[in-house]
Each structure stands twice: as structure tokens, then as C-alpha cells.
Design a protein that fits this description.
Blueprint (H helix, E strand, L loop, with lengths): L2 H14 L6 H12 L5 H13 L3 H23 L8 E2 L2 E2 L1 H4 L2 H19 L7 H15 L4 H14 L5 H11 L1 H14 L7 H28 L8 H5 L1 H13 L8 H11 L3
Antiparallel strand pairs: 1-2
Length: about 270
Amino acid sequence: MDWQALFNAALIRELELQVNPSSRLREALLYAARSPGKRLRPRFVRESSLRFGLSDSAMDFCGIAIESVHLFSLIHDDLPALDDDDLRRGLPTLHKKFDEGTALLAGDELLNLAYSFFMKIGGVSSRNLLAGLKYFSKCIGGEGMIGGQMLELELLRSGTTPDLPTLLKIQDLKTGALFRASILIPALLAGEPESSESFRTLESYANSFGFAFQIADDLEDADQDEEESRKNILSLMGRDAAISLAIDGLESMKIATEYSPTAFLLSQLQSKR
């Protein structure tokens, strides 16, 4: 069994262990967890954990916690109040498979469980666990993913044409924050100070990956919906310039070769040139 299959099994197992009086909510959680995905964020957790010498248990629970947050964000992002999507990766979104109320509560429960999973991380000092937890919360909340989602919502409701700095800020928070969490929290759990050169180097790589990931996502949108592609970073920066900047940002960093998602993303981007 490969790593991703093992991780998927661990994620499902942890969700099945939760005491839940509602069978419908339980089914919704498992539906979200079983949806197809690349599991890039827990993969980053694993590779950073190996780099910093964390235990298998620590890397598993950290990965499950961050992936639970990611699943929560997808469920809520698909709701009619936000993106109003009917399909995700070829399957009905959770609110279409169940209903809006169930989807809202399933997302809430995944975010709640994420903190429970994080607190199961063992083999690290309480000080390091607290440092990791604080960064985890920062990347999820108003300074991170949720803040980025809110900026995007305000932009959409304003009806104004977005400028490049605004879109880059939204990308950095909404998309980039969880990549930073995945790469940097294992370093914090291992006692790496945020002020260290090693931490800053990893942070720069995480930011470069987040930007490149967004450009790859914008390219996919451009292929599927020409109208939507006029509202993203790709359209404002220019296709060729954006792709080149994304590729150069990854290829210029030696540490990028130490993380397997880099090669996957570079391949995607280079195929669009």
C-alpha cells in the first residue's frame, strides 16, 4: 500500500472513531474524506516531518488535522453563499449530496475535529506543541485562510474589477496559508525557531509553492471558463509572465527539490507553456 492510501485509511479511521449521535453527519464527514484528492498538504507534512525527525504518529495527526481543515474549507467554499458549486472533482458537492444545513455542520465539525487531532500529536514538548498550535490557528483564521476567503467575498460583492495586489493578497491567505502550515508546523514541533534561517527558507519555499499552485489553478480555470479566467491573477499578470514567474520561483530554490509536490507542480506548469 502506498503512502497516500495509508494516509487515506488513517483519516477515515480517525473519523470513524468519533462519537457522533447523528448518522447523517457521520455519513457526510466520511463522504468528504473519501472524495478524490491529491493530499498535497499531508504530503508536505510528512516530508517536513521526516526532515525534522518527528515520529510517525506526530506526522500522521498533524497531517490529518491540516487535511481536515482543508476539507472543511472545500465544503464551505462550495456552498451557495460562497462559490455555489454543484460538482467537485466530478462528484456532487456535499450540500448537493446531502443538504446545505448538513454541509454547513459537517464543515464546522471538521474544523472542530482538526484541533482535537492536532492535540493528539505526541513525542514533542508542550512548548513546541503550543508553538505549532498557535501557527496552526493563525493559518486557519482571520490572518490566514478564512481571512482570505472573506477578502474574496467582499471583492465579489463589491462588483469592482480586482487589481493584482488584491488578488495576490487573497491568494497568499486563502491558498498559501495552509501550504505554509503544512511545511512549517513540523519545523515548529521539532523546536525550530521562527527567526531561524532554516525556517525563513522553508517559508519562502511555501510562499513560492502557494503562488505557483494558484497559477496552475488559474490555468485550469482558463481552460474551463473563459469568463472566470478574466478575474484571476493569470489575466492581470499575463499568461506567459505568470507561468514563468511561478516556474522560476520554484526552480530558483534548492530546497524545492526536497519536496515531491514541486516536481508535480512544475510538470503541470511546464505543460502549459
